[in-house]
Amino acid sequence: MSNLRVLRRRIRSVESARQITKAMEMVAAARLRRAQARALAARPYAAKITDMLGNLSSAASELDHPLFKAREAKTTALVLVTSDRGLCGAYNSNLIRAAEQRLRAGAPGAHPQAGTRLVLVGKKARDYFKRRKVPVLAVHTPVPAEASLEFARALTGDLIARFVGGEVDRVELMFTQFISALRRRVVTEVFLPIGAGRAEGRAAGGDAIFEPDAESIFAELLPRYATARLFAALADALASEQSSRMIAMGSARKNAGELMDLLVLQRNRLRQASITRELLEIVGGAEALK
Amino acid sequence: MAATFELSILTPERAVFEGKVEYVQVPGSEGYLGVLADHAALVTALASGTLTVRRPAGREESWQVSGGFFEVSRNRATVLADAASTVAMPLA
């Protein structure tokens, strides 16, 4: 009989695991919708500021700004965007694995003695590299639950200060790009210096009036462009985290359901066996009394 | 009816306004400036201040903006504001 009791206890625990994972799946789905809407809402600004940067740099090619100048990349800062919370499948381990690979391989086409230093976003990356005693440049945590402009501004400010101050010669972003609710991938983008090549203007703004002048607009534009890009990357990372969690919790719920079915079947069989046995004993006892 | 042009007011987080307007007044870094339809191409930095638009029906709307840019080209004006919040219009 103790076997039946053990089975019943197990069924209860699997059932509650199923309920918890189901609840987490639904919460993640709701957060994913919000995160996606936020990422989408930020797009017009990002597109326009990219456009303006392109126009401006093609209108006045002699524009010169520290954020624009490529230097020999002796030290590269790798900004790794992870999450604060776990239970989101392989989301963080994929990022950490990619970062470790990158640390071992070094930057593509970089200086032979080039070093890569880490700037970590999120508790998961912080804990991982702390455990392994890997020195890091900076840690930014907690990560806001919704893509936050203040957070993006603070992080951009920190990165720009390190870049302009000469502490690092190049800044790369490593984050999870959101493709769809089912697809996402880890990507690496050069964040600083800001590449002029990418932003190709329509060259229509060539005869535009600049107030006060093109240089000062340029100087104002660059940090905002950087912030917009970082904000977009954070919004993508957050949407990816939620979709990853939704899928992980969905499959956990499904597994728990399958296990439940199996356990319930076993329990019913055991119970039926014991009923049959008792019946046989009663019938046997009655027969013996005749 | 006065000629209109397209205006978008965008912040890094979202689009605040999108539509046809007759007139827009922005707090440029060199002082307030007003733009009507068919304005020459222009790019200016913004200071903090009040941005006012007049819509075709004559209705006016205002936002408090803080820094950013204002661009006009080919009858399309775009405000890239760091932040924008609606201003309660005094009852006319």
Distance between the termini of chain A: 30 Å
What is the CATH third-level topology name of the largest domain in chain A? Pyruvate Kinase, Chain: A, domain 1
Order of helices and strands of chain A: HHEHEHEHEEEH
Helical fraction of chain B: under 10%
By CATH, the superfamily of chain B comes out as: F0F1 ATP synthase delta/epsilon subunit, N-terminal
Note the topology:
The complex is a heterodimer of chains A (about 290) and B (about 90).
Chain A: H1 2-41, H2 43-59, E1 75-81, H3 91-105, E2 115-121, H4 123-131, E3 136-140, H5 149-164, E4 170-178, E5 184-192, E6 209-211, H6 214-289
Parallel strand pairs in A: 1-2, 1-4, 2-3
Antiparallel strand pairs in A: 4-5
Helix pairs in contact in A: 1-6, 2-6, 5-6
Chain B: E1 5-10, E2 15-21, E3 23-28, E4 31-36, E5 42-46, E6 49-54, E7 60-65, E8 68-73, E9 76-81, E10 84-86
Parallel strand pairs in B: 1-9
Antiparallel strand pairs in B: 1-2, 3-4, 3-6, 5-8, 6-7, 7-10, 8-9
